[in-house]
Amino acid sequence: MPDWLTLLPVILPTFLVLAALVPDVVGRRHGFRWRQWITFMVAAQCLVAVAMLLIHLVTWVPSPIAELRIVEVFQPTTWVLYDGLSGLMLILVSFIGWATCQYSIRYLEGDIHQARYFRFSAVSIGAVSWMIASGNLIGFAFGWVAMNLGLHSLLLLKPDQSGATRAAWTKFAINRIGDLALFAAFGLLSVKFDSLVLVDIFESAQAMQLEAGSPPPILVAACFLLFIAAASQSVQFPFHSWLPETLGSPTPVSALMHAGIVNAGGYLVIRFANVFALSPLSMNTMAVVGLITTLVAVTVLMTQTSIKKSLAHSTIAQMGFMMLQCGLGASVPATVHLVAHSLYKSNAFLRSGSVISDRKAIAGAREWNRSLAWYETGFAFTVSCTLFAATWILFGLSPTEKPGGWILGSILCLALTHWIAEAMRSGSRRLVLQSTATAALICFLYVTGFLATDALISNGLPTSTSLLSSRVVGTVVVLGFVGLTFLQTRLGSTTQPAWAQTMQVHASNGFYIEHGIRRVFRLLATS
């Protein structure tokens, strides 16, 4: 077999990254061919990624094709690590990249910055793909840095937009903190495991999970540094202030950023799950930070009137929830969440211009009545729990046997409870039936998505039962979402108490947290 086939997952990403060497004057001179060529390259990468994953899946089934030498491509090497997780992420990144490039051809038609946009879009997409498929710490770090530099150039695409420019340099300063943390963590890991190859590190970490005793300090430090890098990339509190400021960026840049690049922090945590499993303290910290990020972002989200601002805070909340799942040891649900959020958010941004925001209460909704509201909430909660339990029993599963299963199940039931209760408040029996049927479909899709993803990526995830978070952390998480559900009910009612009105004013200004944090990082960005 040709040696180059083992490098197949990184060949096209390498050509995309090399677009950084092409001067803008060349792209402007051959504008049509340049954008078509970049779009074609990203589409080809998507097709190759789909083909590789299909072959990867076929090799699981005993058949003549499973014995073909093509399966040697999927054996880990020093430079490439291709498995279910990287295969799934490569398809996701390539598809979103192709969709944004295709959208941008018409969106940026005649724009003087079009050549530069396609140049650095190619760099960003290729760098993310390089990071995903990398088989060693050096390649991973290269993809990480190139990805952020490519996004930085995209955010500076139109320098006359002061807001986007300030956000770009704020993000630049935050990314440098994340880069330093990532380099330090990788240095500690290479010293501890005496290897730069990811497979060697993960196998050694899995072996250490079976040993009794507390983890060595060098690993605890590495885990916290990895978490800082992931938090800075995936807009966790307090690194989230720059994201709402980027709303002035071109729509395809926002779509690529929200649906792809900010997810790199989640991928980092999921990929290094075997390392994080050695430090329960870092995982509990991850869960708490994810919870804080989610609660703050959702509270601010409920007070926004702009669609794009709502989408920005929605991304922060979703990234917080994904980090919370990772902290609970639920890497499979976190992967499902990452994929679903990426597809939804790319579609939402690319369609944001044709969407009209409607934040009015449900037509015909009654005024908030305490006793009636408790009855509706109780009934909706019973229905939600019944649907969730029935779905898991149907597939023969138990949430208590999965890391963070009962916590995530409780959160899902709370979300469905609020939805069904709002439908009941409308007074429409048809809407209640539709909401209940949709809730049942969501439970079904959630479980089937979980099972499919678990079958695809579970081989590379830790199996230790110690991944279950402490009861204290789990209880705090559930109570936090219960409080959020109550707050959402009160802020959405037509008769708000005084404390809710006061909170709404502060929440609409982001609780003034972002202003101080933004000022600090702007100083770092200009220093």
Shape: globular
Instruction: Estimate the strand proportion.
Output: under 5%
Question: Which class of secondary structure composition applies to the elements?
Answer: mainly alpha
C-alpha Rg, in Å? 23 Å
Residue-averaged pLDDT, rounded? 79
What order do the helices and strands follow?
HHHHHHHHHHHHHHHHHHHHH
Largest sheet: none
- Helical percent range? over 70%
Total domains: 3
N- to C-terminal separation?
Answer: 52 Å
List low-confidence stretches.
62-69, 354-369
Strand tally is 0
Number of separate helices: 21
Verbal overview:
The protein has 527 residues and is an all-alpha fold. It folds into three domains: 134 residues; 248 residues, no CATH class; 126 residues, no CATH class. The protein contains 21 helices and no strands. Helix 9 runs antiparallel to helix 11, helix 16 packs parallel to helix 18 and helix 17 runs parallel beside helix 19. The chain is globular. It starts with 7 loop residues before the first helix and ends with a helix.
List the topology elements.
Blueprint: H1 8-17, H2 24-29, H3 31-58, H4 84-107, H5 114-133, H6 137-155, H7 162-193, H8 198-209, H9 217-233, H10 251-259, H11 264-271, H12 273-276, H13 280-301, H14 307-327, H15 331-350, H16 370-394, H17 405-425, H18 429-457, H19 471-491, H20 498-508, H21 513-526
Helix pairs in contact: 1-3, 1-5, 3-4, 3-5, 4-5, 4-10, 4-15, 5-6, 6-7, 7-9, 7-21, 9-11, 10-15, 13-14, 13-19, 14-15, 15-18, 16-17, 16-18, 17-18, 17-19
